[in-house]
Amino acid sequence: MKRIEHGLELVIFNSRWLLAPIYVGLVLSVVLLLVKFVQEFFHILMHMFTASESDVILAVLTLVDLSLVANLLLIVIFSGYENFVSKIHTDNHEDRPEWMGKVDFSGLKLKLVASIVAISGIELLKAFVNTSGYNHEDLSWKVGIHVVLVVSGVLLAWMDRIAAGAKH
Question: Which residues fall within 8 angstroms of residue 115, CB to CB, at 6 or more apart?
Fold first, then answer.
């Protein structure tokens, strides 16, 4: 019976590798974002002298938005892989992010929420710069959703702080 239990535990433990293709898919998603970033950048470049100031600001905010989403994906890829699959061996490479290997699930959750709030903030800023493209109800929804995301982030951080205090 002990042998069966050990075999079952080995299968369950090794099942973490089923997540590896998901992380590879997320890496490919970063490539897709890069393609979209380059496409958007050249679109801005081609219309730079004919576009209005607000059009340029909106285009640059779109680039910032793409950058934030790519950063979010990298945080998920690095932290998720290291927390749930295997350590990433970089032999103390000088470019290894300082937070790699130190972000636990709680920290990952807070980083995700903070990134989502930042992305939502950029989208809201884009809507305010281009108010002619939105009606009052659309703007109200965007503000409401952003407020909910901010409050959710604060509540998650507060719950983590309470949980950390309870551990000590």
Answer: 68, 71, 72, 75
